[in-house]
Design goal:
The chain has 288 residues and is of the alpha/beta class. It has a single domain (31-121, 130-281), classed as NAD(P)-binding Rossmann-like Domain (Rossmann fold, 3-Layer(aba) Sandwich). The chain is built from ten helices and seven strands. The chain has helices spanning 3-22, 45-56, 68-81, 96-110, 133-161, 181-203, 221-227, 238-250, 261-271, 273-282, and strands at 36-40, 60-65, 85-90, 115-118, 164-170, 209-215, 255-258. Strands 3-2-1-4-5-6-7 form a seven-stranded parallel sheet, with helices on both faces. Strand 1, helix 2 and strand 2 form a beta-alpha-beta unit. Helix 2 (45-56) crosses helix 8 (238-250) and helix 4 (96-110) packs parallel to helix 5 (133-161). The longest helix has 29 residues, at 133-161. The chain is globular, with a radius of gyration of 19 Å.
């Protein structure tokens, strides 16, 4: 296909995507009042903002992360914002027993589940890969295996409530990039597994929906610290990313992209492969 034809098709698909978004079902904030939600990775960043949005809308929330002292502060703010119930459980997603314990705690304390927002990630250096296979294996447990384990554990409760699994992923789970190989591997795994699980649940006529949220660069402290000196891209606000994540679950959307450029980045990857690699490499500051 010649370049002008590719550009025309690219524009047509983009317009169709925007038309689809504008014609979709309306988001009703009142529908979240009293819903039972488990949010992981909620001590800071996007997960923290997700918890605050749910709290403001009167949901019942269980949050989890490793740092108990920070979780206490987030729960207090959730209560102040109007959450019907706000509880925390500290856990390490690198430990399989902790993963099950979190879901069991949420189901018992909330007497069921309507939404589970899988958002946690393990720390990983932002640098050329140093062939550390042990770190890759550990990060896969935290960023991928624990997601699968929590989803499986929560499925019976979500079937009863016609609930939703919301998976926070990344553009780096769609597009290869330097400096974050272990992280990227886990995000590709997430997109592959949960995208395939969407099909299987639909074929089984399951009551449970799965929403995969493809995020670009968000202005969390950890993200900003990692990319400092490596790449110059404008970040987008965590509170807005969190809002789009919540909307995706309510509207039972199979996949959402935030901010706007993430969708076009995926199209660019597929339609302009020769230019893709040059653009990616030119975005990074690296001297061998």
């Amino acid at each position: 296909m010649k370049l002008p034809a590719k550009i025309f098709l690219f524009g047509t698909l983009s317009a169709a995507f925007l038309a689809y978004l504008w014609s979709g079902p309306a988001f009703n904030e009142e529908s979240l009042k009293g819903v039972k939600v488990l949010v992981t990775g909620a001590s800071t960043g996007i997960g923290e903002q997700v918890a605050y949005h749910y709290a403001r809308l009167g949901a019942q929330i269980v949050i989890t992360a490793r740092r108990e002292n920070v979780l206490k502060e987030v729960v207090k703010k959730c209560q102040d914002l109007g959450a019907q119930k706000a509880l925390y459980i500290s856990a390490d997603m690198g430990i399989s027993a902790d993963v099950d314990r979190v879901v069991e705690f949420a189901e018992q304390q909330l007497e069921g589940l309507d939404y589970i927002v899988l958002n946690h990630i393990g720390p990983s250096p932002y640098q050329m890969w140093d062939s550390d296979v042990d770190h890759m294996r550990w990060l896969m447990q935290v960023n991928f295996h624990s997601y699968v384990q929590m989803a499986v554990k929560a499925l019976p409760a979500l079937e009863k409530s016609k609930g939703s699994i919301v998976v926070v992923s990344s553009l780096l789970g769609k597009m290869c990039s330097p400096f974050a190989l272990p992280y990227i591997a886990t995000k590709f795994a997430l997109n592959g597994f949960f995208g395939s699980l969407q099909h299987e649940l639909a074929m089984k006529q399951s009551n449970v929906s799965i929403s995969i949220c493809i995020l670009g660069l968000i202005d969390t402290d950890s993200a900003m610290e990692k990319i400092k000196g490596h790449i110059d891209i404008t970040p987008y606000p965590a509170h807005e990313a969190a809002w789009q994540i919540i909307k995706a679950g309510v509207l039972r959307q199979s996949e959402i992209f935030y901010p706007w450029y993430t969708y076009y980045g995926v199209l660019f990857r597929d339609w302009f492969p020769h230019a893709r690699d040059q653009v990616i490499r030119s975005c990074y500051n690296y001297q061998p």
